[in-house]
Amino acid sequence: MSTLAKAAANSLANTIRRLNIKETGLLRSSAYIGGQWVDAADGRTFPVNEPATGQHIADVPNMTENEVKEAVKAAKAAQKSWAGRTAKERHDILNKWFALQIAHTEDIASILAAESGKPLPEAKGEVAYGASFIQWFAEEATRAYGDVIPQNVSNRRLVAIKQPVGVCSVLTPWNFPSAMLTRKAGAALAAGCTVVAKPAAETPLTTLALIHLANLAGVPAGVLNAVTCDNVNVTTVGKEMATNPDVAKVSFTGSTAVGKLLMSQASGTIKKISLELGGNAAFIVFDDADVDAAVAGCIASKFRNTGQTCVSVNRIYAQAGIHDQFVQKLAEKLKGLKVGIPTDPGVNVGPLISERGLAKVESHVEDAKKKGAKVVLGGKRHELQRTFYEPTLLADIIAKEETFGPVASVFKFSTEEEVIALANDVDFGLASYFYSRDIGRCWRVAEALEVGMVGINEGIISTAEAPFGGSGLGREGSKYGIDEYMHVKYLCFGGI
């Protein structure tokens, strides 16, 4: 072993001890291609650091489009064999993967919290949430039914069957590194597809830990691969994942700008594509709402993962009759949120993922102030410094852009018609929420909101059983999720 290799191994061992990881194989500093843990061909790496403390966690391979080609080649070689297994065989392997994730929740959560800055209880919740998609799609593998179609003439029989699309490129974001891999890869593997995954540069270690467990569960070599790279190489790596002629499907969660680029690149070879893009969720509180329940739902949605989720509340509308009461109660609850290091007891709000994320939050708050917003609470960096920001409440302002951070802005409205128009006046139709105890209003507003998902008297709505999406193309999770990784083939039997 070279001096550099020994130093890297010692650094990884120190991190394993510091994070108290019991299953040492879960913390990986190599990518995974064709059933082998590999480094970049040129030996280059990039660091993964804790946003909360700046401490170094590990160095992972800084790969290029060449490694993507190798991963796609491995995935293509494994795909027909994987698709040829019975649905029950795929179900059993996926169920083993699910069980291993649950068994190693503590260790995976420690890695996830360290690299993402997510409070440890939230990290544990994400691991369970992510694992639920593997369990769900294990069952869906055995229910990918086709149809027998009533024939048009008596001597024919018409049948539609579903088959896997083939090799899938999966590009996941940093804010839910466990759940975004499992929600995509679970459906793909259940369908009989193989996967090349590229985790975000900020949070690759959770993905690598999950792939280690997939290997232990019996997922065959080449079926699930991971290529890692930094935010410089991602341009060429992403392009290869979108344009490689052996890739049949691209699934991406992230910014709208990148989604548009990938869609354009994938169009050259007419690939199937799923995109879950930007969010700018409205949260509406009507006069007849249970205000306390609305406050609780708002905090759960807005401040989860320090406000860094695509379905986070971004624009809050409170009807005139309860506006002041809602703002007062929301401010009181926000005062009780504890900001701190993700592993500290009782922490509700961790750091933002990066200096860039912090700068965006600061610029949005300063812009709001200039435009007349009243700062009810917070409004500046937290005393912990680094990328910590105070839970912030602004009043008398409508947020036009998505603020990926712990900032809530409240605007007063008068009528149902007015607030529906305001809620729909955005480019992203991912999610919206509203609180009302009028059943007629619940149906009217839910149907009128131009989004893919609506929370009615509920602030946390995502679950494996329900379809997720609305701001891009396709749906993830639910019975619809597996269809994104399958083609429908029509069979016409003549001469009967």
From TrEMBL:
The keyword ATP-binding does not apply. Its EC number is 1.2.1.16. Keywords: Oxidoreductase. One of its GO terms (molecular function) is succinate-semialdehyde dehydrogenase (NAD+) activity. The active site is at residue 276. Pathway: Amino-acid degradation; 4-aminobutanoate degradation. The keyword Oxidoreductase applies. This is succinate-semialdehyde dehydrogenase [NAD(P)(+)]. It comes from Gonapodya prolifera (strain JEL478). The lineage of its organism: Eukaryota, Fungi, Fungi incertae sedis, Chytridiomycota, Chytridiomycota incertae sedis.
